[in-house]
């Protein structure tokens, strides 16, 4: 290009009108680039040649294009061949397939690849019988197996291997096996012999051992001794399939000697194939074969691996775990130690060469070598759980801890990513010794790479459970002391995920945080995590992330052990979300209401969230009203007649106002559909009904657990006061031991409480203490036992058959299955006192009058929407 004009140069410093003209002159010269593009358009003559009569049928058009069309048209017809076979198989076989055969003789690579895929699709679609397919298509496939292009040849080979699975033995013998005898001879091309190796490996699954020994094994031996190393390597990799087809005895007498000989081959790829095949066949051989024949070969291979190509080390490091497992029990102590040291050496391979030089100064061959070393260390991380079994978990600290530390602090992300994936397996294997890797868990949680964090949090709930219950420190009071850095690491991990663009990792992390009530204290969750969930719900721009935060917040609220904190959270949800200025916050409030319905008891929702939810029927934003309409059936399912008759009347009044006053046509259409669904719903009654029996039982258990949380808090306060005297150590230890018992309710707690104004079955101090013990047990253990169900609450209706209530007390299963949306029952005569307080929440009247004013509720978004909430009164 010519140097820029003075006007263009001035434009760098000045954006005045005169300087812009200089840019325009320069840009006009660039229009020459468009000229070659226009020349590539089709001419009228070319368009005429590509035009086909629209009146032709599919078959006629296919025949015409294959006969007189261009290659691209013929390729299109062949790609459409499976459709023609489904539509009219007889005519396609009679008229189109002969034209396809003719076209393939001179076809290019693209048409050949398309034909191989189409033939395979026809086989999978079962458009014709196996006999017809073999008669019409098999010869075409065999004809093009030795195509000069390797990609085309492999495509046809893959199709043939799939065809072999369905062909009868007679067809296989006459059409494939017999011609294979000549194709496998040394006089044939290398490509032909390679194809023969793969076909032989597939055929062994179709014949009996006698036929394999007589017809196939001679060809196998011949190819194992081929002069070309590619053929020997290819045949060696097929020996695993052949061994599975001929049985143990023939494998020992025929296959094993060939493998031993190939393991000493001059070609490194052949030796590698022999080693991998031996490792995969270890289960077939007995102890004598392993110790006397295979072990010396493996030892020799490992000793020579560092002197060989790095690709050998990559394969060896990948198979080392399976190798040590297969040879476990036949090692002498010296051999055991030697293999362990060999593994440790592989785990640090390449780290000693770190010199801090700039990558631009390192020769390319050194960079390539370092990449292979990274693959070796990654494979070592993959095999780490197997090596723990190899050394015995009891010896982990002495033998493998330093190696584990190195892998967790490896400078390369793929290595740390792999060890993060294996962290859960390592934790399970260590069992009571899991405390040894606490620091490594914190390290991986604080890793700078989000890929590592994403891999770790897949099993974070299970890992944290093992960390909190492993060893002797299994009670709640010692949970946090055993993991002092856990809370800062978890909060830092969430902040890093939130600051990144990988919102799926952030969403997953928030979902996994639902396990925290079983790991850390309620106060820690309240001060370090719960407020953060609020912030995410209010400020994050990603909807799945907001919903994950909302659900986790509801679970935190469910297991919060302080009434004052619970009331504060509820008030924030109603005021900042349900009555928020932004319609987006009010939408998230409805999401939260849905989670509340699933996780809490019906009475809890009715007491705190029913009126704020239906108040949104008068929201000024159509999207909010629309979302509420979808939620109304679930809202109605929380009511119970006749106790909640006044709430039902308010719900019906709001729906009637929507029908009469709604002006948005989309919302009105949804309202009409919702009304029909609400009319079809059957209401729960006060008394137990057979059709709702299991649902009511579980809902009553939710209500009972909410009550126990409050009673536990009250008894803890009494214990702290206790006339200024602390509880004796003996009594406290007894309660701690009792908290490890199964989480069943006391037998003196009735299943239902008819006509009582309080849900408390007894006021005696002994029964309260009993409830406290079981509530503590529930808080420590029951939550985890069914934690996995929290993510399945919308689809867990099928689990009702597995629930069996007892007569005298409810089973542990019923108590901890907290999230099944189809299992809910509420004490009809009173709200659970676990959520009653002397300090009143802002409340609104729950009378049957006009408690919702459409003007005030439908105020514009620029003004906060104020409402208060009042404790629900019993309706006798």
TrEMBL record:
Residues 716-740 have a biased composition (Basic and acidic residues). HEAT repeats lie at residues 216-253, 255-293. Residues 716-773, 821-876 are annotated as: Disordered. GO terms for cellular component: cytosol; protein serine/threonine phosphatase complex. GO terms for molecular function: protein phosphatase regulator activity. Residues 827-845 have a biased composition (Low complexity). Its main location: cytoplasm. Residues 754-764, 846-861 have a biased composition (Polar residues). InterPro entries: ARM-like, ARM-type_fold, HEAT_type_2, PPP4R4. It is found in: Cytoplasm. Gene3D superfamilies: Leucine-rich Repeat Variant. Residues 867-876 have a biased composition (Basic residues). Keywords: Coiled coil, Cytoplasm, Phosphoprotein, Repeat. Serine/threonine-protein phosphatase 4 (PP4) occurs in different assemblies of the catalytic and one or more regulatory subunits. Component of the PP4 complex PPP4C-PPP4R4. Putative regulatory subunit of serine/threonine-protein phosphatase 4. This is Serine/threonine-protein phosphatase 4 regulatory subunit 4. It comes from Bos indicus x Bos taurus.
């Amino acid at each position: 290009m010519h140097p820029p004009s003075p006007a263009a140069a001035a434009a760098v410093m000045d954006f005045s009108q005169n300087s812009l003209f200089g840019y325009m002159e320069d840009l006009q010269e660039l229009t020459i680039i468009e000229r070659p593009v226009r020349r590539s358009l089709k001419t009228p003559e070319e368009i005429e040649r590509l035009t086909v009569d629209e009146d032709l049928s599919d078959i006629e058009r296919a025949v015409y294009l294959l006969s007189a069309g261009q290659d691209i048209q013929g390729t299109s017809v062949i790609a459409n061949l499976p459709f023609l076979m489904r539509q009219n198989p007889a005519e396609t076989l009679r008229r189109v397939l002969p034209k396809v055969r003719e076209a393939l003789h001179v076809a290019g690579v693209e048409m050949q690849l398309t034909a191989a895929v189409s033939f395979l699709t026809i086989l999978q679609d079962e458009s014709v019988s196996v006999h017809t397919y073999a008669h019409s298509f098999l010869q075409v496939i065999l004809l093009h197996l030795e195509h000069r292009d390797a990609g085309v040849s492999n495509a046809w080979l893959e199709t043939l291997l799939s065809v072999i699975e369905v062909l009868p033995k007679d067809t296989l013998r006459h059409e494939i096996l017999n011609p294979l005898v000549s194709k496998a001879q040394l006089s044939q091309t290398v490509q032909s012999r390679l194809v023969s190796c793969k076909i032989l490996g597939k055929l062994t699954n179709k014949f009996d051992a006698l036929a394999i020994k007589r017809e196939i094994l001679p060809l196998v031996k011949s190819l194992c001794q081929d002069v070309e190393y590619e053929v020997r390597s290819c045949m060696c990799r097929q020996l695993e399939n052949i061994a599975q087809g001929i049985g143990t005895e023939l494998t020992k007498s025929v296959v094993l000697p060939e493998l031993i000989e190939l393991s000493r081959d001059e070609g490194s790829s052949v030796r590698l194939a022999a080693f991998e095949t031996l490792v995969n066949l270890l289960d077939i051989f007995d102890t004598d074969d392993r110790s006397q024949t295979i072990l010396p070969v493996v030892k020799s291979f490992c000793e020579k691996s560092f002197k060989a190509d790095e690709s050998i080390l990559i394969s060896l490091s990948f198979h080392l775990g399976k190798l040590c497992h297969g040879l476990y029990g036949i090692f002498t102590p010296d051999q055991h130690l030697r293999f362990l040291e060999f593994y440790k050496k592989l785990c640090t391979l390449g780290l000693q060469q770190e010199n801090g030089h700039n990558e631009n100064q390192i020769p390319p061959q050194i960079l390539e070598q370092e990449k292979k070393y990274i693959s070796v260390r990654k494979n070592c991380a993959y095999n780490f759980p197997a090596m723990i079994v190899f050394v015995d978990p009891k010896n982990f600290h002495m033998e493998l801890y330093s190696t584990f530390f190195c892998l967790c602090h490896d400078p390369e992300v793929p290595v740390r990513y792999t060890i993060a994936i294996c962290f859960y397996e390592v934790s399970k294997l260590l069992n009571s010794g899991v405390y040894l890797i606490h620091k490594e868990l914190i390290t991986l949680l604080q890793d700078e790479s989000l890929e590592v964090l994403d891999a770790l949090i897949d099993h974070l709930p299970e890992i944290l459970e093992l960390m909190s219950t492993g060893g002797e420190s299994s009670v709640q009071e010692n949970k946090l002391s055993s993991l002092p850095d856990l809370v800062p690491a978890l909060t830092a991990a969430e902040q890093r995920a939130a600051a990144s663009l990988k919102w799926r990792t952030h969403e997953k992390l928030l979902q996994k945080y639902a396990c925290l009530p079983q790991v850390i204290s309620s106060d820690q969750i309240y001060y370090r995590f719960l407020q953060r969930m609020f912030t995410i719900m209010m400020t994050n721009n990603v909807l799945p992330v907001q919903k994950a935060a909302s659900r986790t917040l509801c679970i935190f609220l469910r297991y919060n052990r302080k009434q004052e904190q619970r009331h504060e959270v509820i008030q924030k949800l109603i005021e900042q979300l349900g009555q928020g200025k932004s319609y987006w916050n009010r939408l998230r409030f409805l999401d939260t209401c849905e989670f509340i319905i699933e996780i809490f008891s019906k009475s809890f929702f009715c007491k705190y969230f029913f009126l704020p939810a239906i108040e949104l029927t008068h929201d000024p934003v159509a999207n909010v009203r629309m979302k509420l309409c979808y939620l109304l059936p679930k809202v109605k399912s929380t009511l119970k007649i006749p106790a909640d008759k006044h709430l039902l009347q308010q719900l019906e009044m709001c729906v009637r106002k929507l029908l009469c006053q709604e002006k948005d046509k989309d919302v009105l259409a949804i309202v009409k559909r919702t009304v029909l669904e609400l009319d079809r719903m059957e209401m729960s009654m006060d008394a137990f009904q057979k059709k709702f029996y299991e649902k009511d039982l579980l809902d009553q258990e939710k209500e009972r657990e909410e009550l126990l949380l409050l009673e536990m808090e009250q008894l803890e306060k009494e214990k702290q006061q206790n006339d200024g005297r602390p509880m004796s150590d003996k009594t406290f230890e007894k309660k701690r031991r009792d908290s490890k018992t199964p989480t069943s309710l006391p037998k003196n707690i009735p299943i239902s409480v008819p006509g009582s104004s309080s849900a408390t079955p007894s006021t005696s101090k002994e029964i309260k203490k009993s409830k406290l013990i079981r509530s503590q047990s529930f808080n420590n253990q029951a939550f985890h036992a069914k934690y996995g169900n929290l993510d399945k609450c919308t689809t867990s209706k099928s689990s009702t058959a597995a629930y069996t209530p007892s007569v005298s007390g409810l089973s542990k299963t019923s108590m901890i299955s907290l999230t099944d949306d189809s299992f809910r029952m509420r004490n009809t005569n009173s709200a659970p006192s676990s959520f009653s307080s002397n300090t009143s929440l802002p409340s609104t009247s729950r009378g049957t009058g006009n408690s919702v004013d459409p003007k005030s509720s439908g105020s514009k978004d620029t003004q906060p929407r104020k409402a208060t909430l009042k404790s629900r009164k019993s309706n006798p």
